[in-house]
Known about the structure:
It is built from four helices and twelve strands; from the N terminus they run αβββββαβαββββββα. Strand 9 and strand 10 form a beta hairpin.
Amino acid sequence: MQSLRPLPMSAEQDLPDVTADLFRQLWRGVGATATLVATEHEGQRHAMMATAVTSVSLDPPSLLVCVNRSASAFRALEARGAFSLGILPAAQQDLGAAIAHAPAQERFDHGDWARLDAPKQDCHQLPWLRETATTLFCKVENSLDHGTHCLLIARIDAAIGETPTDPLLYMNGQFGRFAEMHG
């Protein structure tokens, strides 16, 4: 594993190349909210944990989710163009880990899943996990391929739940919580 060195004081010094391994090592130390992305396409449900999620706009309310194109759920997300995005509370750490580590076909064996009944919306029949603090129902409006990932920009059509106050976080390959705020 490549290690880091202090930043040089002079621009004349060579900086190390950032390889995929070095970037992965660096980014593991950056915590993120663990979210659960789910969709249904052609009668099959698909789910994945995602941490590369951010808000994009208040008007229209929208967000961005980065999905590895090799992820088992990617083709269904791309084809359906709609998904639910659940924000798990920290109390659901074991559930989040179980879903994240389960084979794709077994992810819906964990937790209490439902389908949204909204026949006039793009998010009709999307699966969502009842144990989330908040679930947003989203319609993909734009996408951009970059490297190994596809950036999905989605409008938020509906939301259920409460404002998350103690979300499940992911950092250094583990799920947990921000203890200083709630400890």
